[in-house]
Amino acid sequence: MALWGGRFSQAADRRFKSFNDSLRFDYRLAEQDIIGSVAWSKALVTVGVLTVEEQLRLEEALSFLLEEVGAAPESILASDAEDIHSWVEQRLIEKVGDLGKKLHTGRSRNDQVATDLKLWCKMQLSELLSAVRQLQIALVVTAVANQDAVMPGYTHLQRAQPVTFAHWCLAYVEMLARDESRLQDTLKRLDVSPLGCGALAGTAYPIDRDQLAGWLGFATATRNSLDSVSDRDHVLELLSNAAISMVHLSRFAEDLILFNSGEAAFIELSDRVTSGSSLMPQKKNPDALELIRGKCGRVQGALTGMMVTLKGLPLAYNKDMQEDKEGLFDALDTWLDCLHMAALVLEGLQVKRARCREAAQQGYANATELADYLVARGIPFREAHHIVGEAVVEAIRQGKALEALELAELQAFSPVIGDDVYPALSLQSCLDKRSAKGGVSPQQVALATAEAKNRLA
Ligand code: ARG
Predict the structure, then answer these.
(1) Is the CB of 449 under 6 A from ligand 1?
(2) pLDDT at res. 2
(3) Rounded-to-5 percentages of helix, strand, coil across the chain
(4) Which of 28, 118, 319, 321 gets mutated to test ligand 1 (max ligand atoms within 8 A of its CB)?
(5) Which of 113, 116, 119, 121, when mutated, tests ligand 1's pocket best, judged by the most ligand atoms within 8 Å of its CB?
(6) Catalytic residue at 277?
(7) 115 Cβ inside 6 Å of ligand 1
(8) DSSP calls for 72-107
(9) Distance 168 CA to ligand 1 centre (A)
(10) Catalytic residue among 277, 340, 385, 414
């Protein structure tokens, strides 16, 4: 039976019922709905609606229900209850009879669903935080193993200057560290309880809402009932955290797909995260990474969808808001899966050092070094830049690297060039010189690795 039958003389159209019902997705809030109900029953004792003995009977039945739900959450789906709140109330009444009908006193599904969803968000947020950290740890481990693996760094997808694979790993650690701090920041605003705001105007029972919030593990209770039942900022914030982090993960995936391509062949991916072609026996496709890159789309979609759903909604609760759950569940599930999958990809990743080094040596990645060399000998940078450009054209014409040109050939571009130019053009010197904070020099990378390790310990 629905929670609101009294005013109606006709049953709902079957098609409307299935359009309106939310149990098929909000069953995931069962645990939070039960925990919220236990807390509410305790609040009802403080205002004399329930006796201590009645509350104990309700709490016992609810705890039993919690165990049932924990063991088989999908069993809820067999019911034709409208939503998880109706389902919990129905099951409670089946267990304790008429006493169960007292539980909804002073409460509305509006403050109830807002509370359930916030409790769920808090739980999910802590799982996401730990996955974001795990991935950072996996990146640091990969960085440690590849401190001296030199490879080309790119801008415009052109080989630009040599970097190390470790430095590349630490770039993603930084992105994920920001994702982590965004989650922590989201938690601060999320951690306030809407329970006791009723349908929109507040509950008519003099409940200590801050105490109630504390029982549920919230820092405090919300300040305005109209806002509390219609606020879904935490959904937007979590979706936006997910959307930004998925953009990071898609770039991570794309970099590795590129490094794994036949053209680059900088890395070898594990068989555990790749798949074969049904037709071409030679192929080993980076499916895990392509899916991470691809799944970014639906997460951006969920964020946009929720923004548009909330735009222009009048206060307070409107049924539109039921649309918050499917996108949120899907986006956060997807994000979590991708974080785990990215860590799994790193676990079995092999860097082909010789091939990386060879690529770093090609493509005139040390041209900036030659310019800096000229600067050190008194030539203004703009002029040095031009001279090196000409030298590069000549080297390309001969099909050689810069350091493969004879000294006399180099001196034709500038007489200040001496024998000591060759060590300056070496990969090691390119790396070593970038020793200011954040640079790719081996000591800076070692320092950054140690700092990241410390932070993640
Ligand atoms: N299933 C609803 C939701 O997810 C619960 C709140 C219903 N409130 C109401 N007044 N009909 O938003």
Answers:
(1) no
(2) 75
(3) 70, 5, 25
(4) 319
(5) 113
(6) yes
(7) no
(8) -GGGGGGS--SSHHHHHHHHHHHHHGGGGGGTTTT-
(9) 47
(10) 277
The CA 47 to ligand 1 mean position distance, Å, reads 26
Tokens 């305005």 belong to which residue? 224
Q: What is the pLDDT of residue 216?
A: 98
Ligand 1: centre distance to CA 110 (Å): 6
Q: In the numeric block, which tokens belong to residue 348?
A: 């079995």
Ligand 1 geometric centre to CA of 297 (Å): 28
The Cα 70–Cα 322 span in angstroms is: 24
pTM greater than the 0.85 cutoff: yes
Q: Is 109 in the pocket of ligand 1 (CB under 6 A)?
A: yes
Residue nearest to atom 2 of ligand 1 (CA): 322
Domains and CATH numbers, the chain: 14-105 (1.10.275.10), 110-353 (1.20.200.10), 358-456 (1.10.40.30)
Task: Please name the amino acid found at residue 51.
Answer: T
Q: Is 429 in the pocket of ligand 1 (CB under 6 A)?
A: no
Name 244's Cβ contacts closer than 8 Å, sequence gap at least 6: 179, 182
DSSP per-residue letters across 140-188: HHHHHHTTT-EEEEEETTEEEEEEEHHHHHHHHHHHHHHHHHHHHHHHH
Q: Is 107 in the pocket of ligand 1 (CB under 6 A)?
A: no
pLDDT the model gives residue 7: 86
Q: What is the pLDDT of residue 1?
A: 64
Q: How far is CA 421 from the centre of its chain?
A: 46
Distance 48 CA to ligand 1 centre (A): 27
Please report the sign of the dihedral spanned by the C-alpha atoms of residue 294, residue 298, residue 304, residue 307: negative
Count other Cβ atoms within 10 Å, centred on residue 10: 5
Q: With a 6 A CB cut-off, is 321 part of the ligand 1 pocket?
A: yes
Q: Is the dihedral of CA 328, 331, 334, 335 positive or negative?
A: negative
Q: Which residues of the chain have pLDDT under 70?
A: 1
Shortest-distance Cα residue to atom 4 of ligand 1: 322
At 19 the pLDDT is: 98
E strand or H helix that includes residue 189: helix 165-190
Helices (H), 192-286: 209-215, 225-230, 233-260
Query: What's the token pair of residue 5?
Result: 């039958």
Report yes or no: 82 and 23 within 8 Å, Cβ to Cβ. yes
Q: Strands 192-193 and 220-221, how do they pair? A: parallel
- pLDDT value of position 40: 98
